[in-house]
Protein 1
Amino acid sequence: MKISKLITCILILSSLAFLTSCIKEESTTNPNEKGSVILKFDHKAGNEVFAFGKEFTNAAGEKMKFSMLKYYISNIVLHQENGTKYTVPRDSSYFLVDYANSVTHNIKISNIPSGTYTKISFMIGVDSTKNTEDVSKFEGALKLGQGMNWNWNAGFIFVKTEGEVTSASVTSPVSFKYHIGLFGKNGQPNNTRTVTLASQSASESKARVSASISPAFHIVVDVLGKFNAPNIIEVTKKPVVMVDNASNIIADNYAQGMFTLDHIHN
Amino acid sequence: MKFTLIFFAILLIVSGSMYSCQKSDERAGIELPAHFPPIRQPIDLSEITSNKVRLGKMLFFDPILSLDSTIACASCHQQEAAFSHIDHDVSHGIFDRLGSRNAPALQNLLWEKEFFWDGGVHHMDFISPNPIENEVEMGETIQSIVRKLNRHPRYKSLFSEAFQRDSIDVNQILEVFTAFQATLISSNSPFDDYLRGNTSALSESEIQGYALFQSKCGTCHSGVLFTDNSYRNNGLTLDNTSDVGRYGITLKPEDKGKFKVPSLRNVAVSQPYMHHGRLSSLSAVLEHYQRGIKPNPSLDNLLVDKISMTDKEKELIISFLHTLTDQKFLKNPAFKPE
């Protein structure tokens, strides 16, 4: 009996030792209240509601129909009214928005310290550090095989659009492919862009994050912005842009012409 | 009774936690040659287990990776040619589609900075999707390979043994290719013996050839791996339009027609040569550097005046290049299919 008790004790102790060695350290419970926010991406083309197959006129006067729209949002930072910032942890800060999959249009971010947030910033694309990590770090939205990376010039595609285009002079539809990526390796263009957005609506400009309220940031994505502003792109003249020096001005477009924070909802 | 139950419960917990903690199998124990520089790839060799190496090797020889199950990695990367493609200027993939560049040797990849003739891939993990998804090579998609392997009972059980996961994913596949390719180390040629101190490993004329090689070729083909890891235009064409090379990656005009300076290990068995595979012998290569260099806008400065060599010197250089042939590597049973 005595011996078996001893064995039991040893087993309990060793199992505890094994368990503790396996379990990741629990973060010490923060006394501060935590909440979450939702980023909602609403897709438009100019003032019209965006849809695949629907015809839109870009700034160059061309008629565009889309069949593909995907982009990466990463490195999200939320800014409080008082200047403090909350940076979403790196391992959970990469999201792929795929127009074809409406679930991806809403991004939920949890574990945010409660407070009043007025701005959000994020990167369009995938940063160079992540781009050069090994494959074991490519989980979730970054998993290969989603059509968002190049093999031969290894790296992620940041904003991918495809479809058909016509113009006054090019009347039969030309298929276009604008796959914009490149993170600056080997002196290539760096097409990652970081945007900081504040609410356009004076009355709905603050997100009050608390345990009981999960505010929503309504972000309007103007798909034509990629082709319109500030650089007017004539898509029929250059229907394919991928690994190309011309990608740089398109990146300026998606940084400046595509994303606006329409309002914040509490 | 109660006591026995508690005892078993504890036993279960203990064995369960042991199981989850345990490394899935033994390490492959990759040995780095003492006379080589530090590896350049950011790879944790302790993560490479023999199970992963074995899986990588199985896949390397398995045409399951190609669309119509006709082409394996090994179809164009043959061990006896240092895993290049014997006598093929370019290789043929599915449906006899032809590639546009010579299949490079696969050896000492841990020491490379970048991969492929244009250096478009910076990490070993991302080599394998290139041939798999290239439409003139294997013509498959990584997603489809994941599905095929998950339906394959043997791969399924071997992967789950190697990774302790229920299903195979793309990351595991890429990882086992890295594991196998990391083991492809060639460091046992007569020249290596010579470097290790066996002065009789090279003949008198081979030693003379080595000295000549160093003065004529050694700036670019430098160090014990015989490459400075740079990209250079060696004057194969007049206008660089047939293949823009490194320019396709960097988008810098001065990089047009530049290609990676390859290692020369096992060079005597990995003919034909150059990115287009159009020079069929070592003497044709030296002939090119002696007389054949074509002036073009991005021609390397070192080659503007060509390389002057006598016939006797060329012969000696070639005799030295043969000392880089590593029979142990070319015949290593560990690299053969099971």
Note: Chain B has a mean pLDDT of 92.
Protein 2
Amino acid sequence: MNHLIQIKNLGKTFKDFWYRPVIEAVKDLNLTIQQGEVFGLLGPNGSGKSTTLKMLLGLLRPTRGTIELFEGLRPEDVAVKARLGYLPEVSHLHEFLTPRETLMYYAALFGLPQVDAKRRTKELLQMVGLESVADRAVGRFSKGMARRVGLAQALINAPELLILDEPTSGLDPIGCREVKDLVRLLAKSGVTVLMTSHLLADVEDVCDRVAIMNKGERCAYGSTRDLLRNPDMVRFSVSGLTAEVAAEIRLQLEQRAARPVQQDFPEMSLEAYFLKVVSPDANNTAFKVAPFLEKKQ
Amino acid sequence: MKTIRKIFGIFLLALRASLRTKTVFALLLLMVTSVFLLPAVVKGDGTPQGDCHILVLYTLGFSFALLCLSTLWAACALFAAEIDNQLIQLSAVKPVCAFEFWLGRWFALLLLNAIALFAVYSAVYLQLRWKQRQPGWRESVQLVNRSVVHPLLPTPQEEAQEAYELLAKQKELPQGLSKAQILRVLTTKAQERYTIVNPGESISWRFQLPRPIATNELITIRLRFDTEYSTRTQVTGVCRIASDVLDAPMVEVPLDDFSLQEIEFDLSCQAFHLKHDLSGINLFFTHTGNPAKASALMLRFRKDVVVLTQGGSFEANLLRSALVHWSVLALLAAFGLTLSACFSLPVAVFSSTILLLLVMIGTSVTEVVSVEEEKEWLKKPGILVSRGVSAIAHHALRIDPLESVINGERIEDQAVGEALAWNVLLSPACFAFLGILILRRRELASGD
């Protein structure tokens, strides 16, 4: 697999007005992200996740180390910027623009012809469910709606690399689910996704690999499945057993394993239960990927 | 093509940002007030000329000053506010070069200024035309546009060089000053030099007309003068005018009303009895006042003695004036944008305002500096900064278009061209280079 992002010994130290080092936000970070994977960057507040993303985007300059994107390009290169999409933690949209104008503006920044820009804008607005409010100023939107506009602008260029900083922040559970579904769909179509999140369940649901950061350092790094797997434990899930049969099997297992066996009744997650109650047909209302993004598939 | 689309996108955003804020409405209100209320509120001297003066100089001048400030501050906000609010992050991660960001915003300010100037100039022009229909105005106020011809004289720089060489020859050069400093003082003196005409004395000038004047055309002679202690004394004189043809007959015009310290009279070219077009004239002035009573006349001959010829329509001159003003606004926009790329919004606005003040008072500061003060190390940096700012501002504000419009003097194409070249091309290019360099180097985000 090709390395889409390669970070070597990356460090960032913030300085004060007198150029004295104040905070070492990122320390000696090494990461490699492969093409087509969904990578999660986790960590508590102030752990250096967003600083790392901003260095990847060329918004901040590393104090030490190197970043290579798309095999040998630097974050500041215009060629890199043409191939990536970015959703910041706070959407930072121009409040006086409508969603349509916002998307048309960002389409213009990619140099898209007017016809293409209009078509993509329409498709993206449909995708994020904002077509009915496409001509209302973004300043009047709720945080969740603004987030949807932010997500749409990140996809206007059909990016090869999508960088999402807390993509589900401010969204309701349905919105979260839709975003996660979209990330999965985009990943299937070959888009590499790098995301950060506080919500570990979100990351667990969609990420192939994760890195956990704390105080600017990488603490854990690897495939989500490998990291979360408890090597000593085995779980069987069987439906339709009576209590007597279950007790019998448990007894046999205890005898065979020579240690106590824990028995439980699997519960659905609160998110799944919420979606079942609020939106029973959630599967049907999920984001329909914009046709121009599908074409890429 | 992609670059044009990107610049157009940024241009459109800057336009929307400007038009969808309350500040624009406040500015509009102020402009309307200045254009329609100011002429009604400010009291003139009661003459139509005075009203015309207020309408052109005060109204247009005040509106232009308003536009200068608003352009400067809007330009200061365009980058700085976006960086401060982190709005720029989403744009900065798109494939847009710093020069595209800079140009898009600058073009938006150029267009907004063009629209605002067009509106203000149109409103003033319509008021002038409407007032011209009123009795008294038509006879006394002429909305004209005349080419100004100055007498053939060595330039102030040539005169200063000559004076310097003379001083050097006589070994009377001031000690402790460089050649450049001495030449600067001498040039300023040459520009403002007076010729004193005592009663009974005569003085003459030669004028080369920029184009041949047909025999059926009118030329205007204008003399402005000062008297000793600026007293408005009645002084009499005679003007004799002849074409530059050898042994040409003289036209004599007696002058006896100098109470306004300015005299202007029209002369038909037929008076010269020429068989061909007029290409140049010789002007002789004799002070015929009583030597015992009359004051001497003081003429700044580089400015005060002119021949005026037909130069085109008043509207064309007004348009030229608007172009010159627009060019100054373009320069301010470029300057503000560069400051905006360097500093946060409060710092950019503060420094731009300070520099604007320095431009306004810089000339006065540098003019009154004595040779001794110039040597003091504590004052030297301040003087150097004031001189630098004044020198740059001098190029940008070389002509005062409103003064020309009110005097009915044609703003020459060359002057407009120079203003456009300096203010819309050369200086903005330098500012853009600096701004782009800083934008490329600057970190556009903060940490977590």
Note: Chain A is about 40% helix and 20% strand.
